[in-house]
């Protein structure tokens, strides 16, 4: 990865997250900005070893439900097959507008994470997310209509290339 200067409005978010010392005392140095329209999601995935094993996400605009999956193990007869997520998430977290989510430890390294393609998230007493007590909108019977959501995924990339090294060759 080659570093680029962030616009001031985005650098403020990076500085605030860096002040939390989430990345072993080092500052965040990578931001991914994604837009999700109502009905859009992202398949369950892992971020991989390129990143420091912590990820922080700021949700702007709409809420969403982040699903965490325990990966299925590859079939014994095909050792090259990648672990696949089971059809149902192990748990889901409600990400409210203007919230900060931090995934680290086994939540980051063991579980796949994704967002189901949905326009409405229906909550009932059985399916309330484990973080419901901290989320005012997480009430039994709530039907949360998704709008446009912008996510700022802020993390640490341990190794980046210096542009001067690339250009000098």
TrEMBL record:
Its cofactor is Fe(2+). Residues 69-92 are annotated as: Disordered. GO terms for cellular component: nucleus. Pfam families: 2OG-FeII_Oxy_2. GO terms for molecular function: dioxygenase activity; metal ion binding. InterPro entries: AlkB-like, ALKBH6, Oxoglu/Fe-dep_dioxygenase_dom. The keyword Chaperone does not apply. The keyword Metal-binding applies. Coiled coil: none annotated. Residues 27-158 form the Fe2OG dioxygenase domain. Transmembrane segments: none annotated. It is found in: Nucleus. Keywords: Dioxygenase, Iron, Metal-binding, Nucleus, Oxidoreductase. Belongs to the alkB family. This is Fe2OG dioxygenase domain-containing protein. It comes from Sus scrofa (Pig).
């Amino acid at each position: 990865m080659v570093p680029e200067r962030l616009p001031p409005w985005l650098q403020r978010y990076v500085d605030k997250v860096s002040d939390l010392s989430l990345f072993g005392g080092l500052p965040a140095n990578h931001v991914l900005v994604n837009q999700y329209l109502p009905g859009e999601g992202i398949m369950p995935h892992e971020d991989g070893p390129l990143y420091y094993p912590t990820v922080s996400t700021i949700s702007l605009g709409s809420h969403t439900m982040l699903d965490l999956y325990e990966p299925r193990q590859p079939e014994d007869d095909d050792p090259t097959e990648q672990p696949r997520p089971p059809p149902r998430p192990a748990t889901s977290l409600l990400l409210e507008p203007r919230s900060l989510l931090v995934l680290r430890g086994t939540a980051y390294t063991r579980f796949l994470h994704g967002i189901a393609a949905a326009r409405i998230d229906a909550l009932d007493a059985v399916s309330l997310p484990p973080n419901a007590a901290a989320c005012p909108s997480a009430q039994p019977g709530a039907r949360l209509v998704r709008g446009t959501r912008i996510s700022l995924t802020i993390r640490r990339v341990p190794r980046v290339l210096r542009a001067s090294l690339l250009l000098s060759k």
